[in-house]
Amino acid sequence: MTVMNGCDEEAVPPSHHGRRFVIGYAGAIYLDRDPRPLFRAAARVVQDLNLTPADFGIEFIGHVESYDSSRVSDLARNEGLDGYVTIGSRLPHRAVMEFLARATMLVSLPQDSDLAIPAKIFEYVQFDAWLLALATPESAVGLLLEGSGADVVAPEDVDGLTAVIRERVLQHRNGIRPTRISQDGRFSRRTQACRLLDAIADAVQRAPASRQPTLRTALD
Predict the structure, then answer these.
(1) Which of 34-38, 71-75, 103-107, 216-220 has the lowest mean pLDDT?
(2) Which CATH homologous superfamily contains domain 21-183?
């Protein structure tokens, strides 16, 4: 069995979405967290739906200025998203929560390990936002989000990313708003702790009664 990390059962700022569709990312860009597939797919949607920066945008905050010795703003411009991508610096925790509450979609960028789950996902699931994870279905992230309503797409599948972003933008345009993934409680630390304690209790009940050692076995 697996007992995971989870999200804290604490109050977060209420999500509030305007007319503009915002894809948000909070954290750091390092190792294999390549934003270019996201930019490439988003640029296709912008062109296909004739979106302006007033309609659609991608906002990054944190250690997000560069990737692989290139400025992230330049990478976005090279993919045709000049004016659509905002790069912000680190913020206090409360301000980060407010940032996440404004996003229509929250994105988890690809990572170098299929066995790791970014802690940010356990923050993302607490907000009324669509969650897009750039990961394979068989990865730890993919297995975590299976059946949750999140969109899990392999990082190299730009066509798949384009289809997901396009669908969510159209839903948003039609007045459909996302709901938080954590509402069924499966991702809470309380749920995971109860799972662990129940397993321990079950193991204790099934364990054979221990024998009191005899003098001979004690001496041996």
Answers:
(1) 216-220
(2) Glycogen Phosphorylase B; (3.40.50.2000)
